[in-house]
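Subject: Protein N-acetyltransferase, RimJ/RimL family structure
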Amino acid sequence: MIELRPVEPADLDKFFEYQQDPDSNRMAAFTAKNPSDRGVFNHHWQNILNDEAITVRTITSDGEVVGSIMAYPSDGYPELTFWTAKSHWGHGITTSAVEKFLAEFTARPIRARAVKDNLGSIKVLEKAGFKAIGEAQGFANARAAVVTEEILELL
């Protein structure tokens, strides 16, 4: 059973653990320059948790912390982002979490971004009703290269 709940302090240890996976970092692309730097990680998450404009939830599957999902302000729109542990990819968890989050977070339009070769995330977003509206390029730390992102929107 997939559930969303407020982030608890112990969740951060799991989030940090999941951030260590090289394949996950590659798919996310826009990650910390050094994902193993716990100080930078802690600072980043403290900023998220202290920002009232950000809605963030822990994703659990059968009670186990498997990732996070949030909406944050970006360029005048809320933007959706999520991270699911690689060990839980391909099981419908992220799709379910996005559906549940969007039922709770009802501001529209809402946007999301995914690197063009991150077909799993794009598929999850499309299942939720997001449509491609453009592309953007940016430097991705995890790939040490400029990548093209698909920009998607849900009305």
